[in-house]
Every structure is written in structure tokens, then in C-alpha cells.
Amino acid sequence: AQSVAQPEDQVNVAEGNPLTVKCTYSVSGNPYLFWYVQYPNRGLQFLLKYITGDNLVKGSYGFEAEFNKSQTSFHLKKPSALVSDSALYFCAVRDGSSSNTGKLIFGQGTTLQVKP
Amino acid sequence: KAGVTQTPRYLIKTRGQQVTLSCSPISGHRSVSWYQQTPGQGLQFLFEYFSETQRNKGNFPGRFSGRQFSNSRSEMNVSTLELGDSALYLCASSYFTGPLSSYEQYFGPGTRLTVT
Lengths: 116, 116
Fold this sequence. Notes:
The complex is a heterodimer. Helix content of chain A is 0%, strand content 50%. By secondary structure, chain A is an all-beta fold. In chain B, the strands form 2 sheets. In chain B, strands 2, 4, 5, 6, 9, 10 and 11 form a 7-stranded mixed beta sheet that branches. A 4-stranded antiparallel beta sheet of chain B has the order 1-3-8-7, with no helix packed on it. By secondary structure, chain B is an all-beta fold. Chain B starts with a strand and ends with a strand. Classes of the chains: A mainly beta, B mainly beta. The A-B interface holds A 32, 34, 36, 41-46, 49, 51, 90, 95, 98-109 and B 4, 6, 31, 33, 35, 42-43, 45, 48, 55-56, 58, 90, 92, 94, 96, 98-99, 101-110.
């Protein structure tokens, strides 16, 4: 079964410190992995994706993610957190059970709280 | 380029009524997906359309239906509303065309449906 796990409901960091939001996945076939961010009363905003190639993927707003095939993980990182990064973050994987679908399977989300 | 638009943004309906939500994808995107977001269940896939054809369907009762028009705009309908249908309904569009496509999905702001 395809699944995504975000083991932390909330991550708290101080502004200026590095942040990591964790994600592990289980999917058949090659994983297509995504990170999205959601601000209150807004839809999801695309941050970055891993399809193939370099294990370190750079995305919007200074975020990056590290793909680790052996650990089936795709952790989101940022070297220096901003208060404005406080939001709900979702990891997602494209459903690999069918080759002809763009359906995304989402993790439960992690609330990132950055304190000044 | 204009983003994904969804109308209406907010809806209040009574149990037993039906509702239709609308989604206009980003210009040029032919794939539209719908997701339901609730605090308890998170983000769950409803359906996916491509070129007016339903390509994939999530595990929701038959009260949930959708369609896509020739201009790629999509609607979803929920009949005989139940209290548990209260949720944020998100539409996403993509360039996704087939198995080798790696395009990400772009989300609209959502329609907040409240069933009383």
C-alpha cells in the first residue's frame, strides 16, 4: 500500500536556526515526492519535488529536501528559519499503484512554529 | 498566469441538500484533481479528470460526483449532504498527461463547506 508518514505533529524552532520536517514514504515503483505548505485559510502551495537525479532538491523560499532511498525518507530542510515560515507542511507521494494517475497521497501534515 | 480559482469560497448548507463546487484550472492545464481536507482525516483524494474523462476515483460514496468540461473547468457535486461532509474542498490542476509525466499539482484556495 502506498503511504506517507510525517512522524511529528509539530516542530518548534527558533528564528535563525536550521529546521527539519521529517517525511517517510512507502510506494511501489519509483517515488515521485513533493512538499507543499499551507497557510491559514489558504490552499496548498508547491515547494519542491523529487523525481530523479540529485538527492538534494532545492525549492521555493530557501527550502530544500533530501531524498534518501535506503531510508525511504524525504526530509524538508531550511538552513535558517523565519517567523514567516510558520505554517502547515505536507509531504506527498504520487500514487504508484497506477501508472496513469497524478493522484497524490499526503501525510498528515506537520505544523511548523518558528519563534522570534 | 492566473492561478487555480475555486468558487464559491464559502458555503453553508443544510443536511440533506446538495451542493456544486466549481474549479477553473491554470490556463493550459488539462488535468484537474479534487481533494477533501478535514482535521480528522487530513487530505483525501476524491477524483481526477483529464480531457473530460475521470481517470481515477477515491474511496468516497456515490453521493460525491464530478465532471470536467471541454475547457478543462471542473465541477464536483455532493448530494444528500451529511454533517461529516463539512470540509475544505481543494481543487488542483496540473500539466500531467500520462505515465511519464512528472508535473506537480497547483492548488486553488479551496471551498469551505459547512453542513448544519
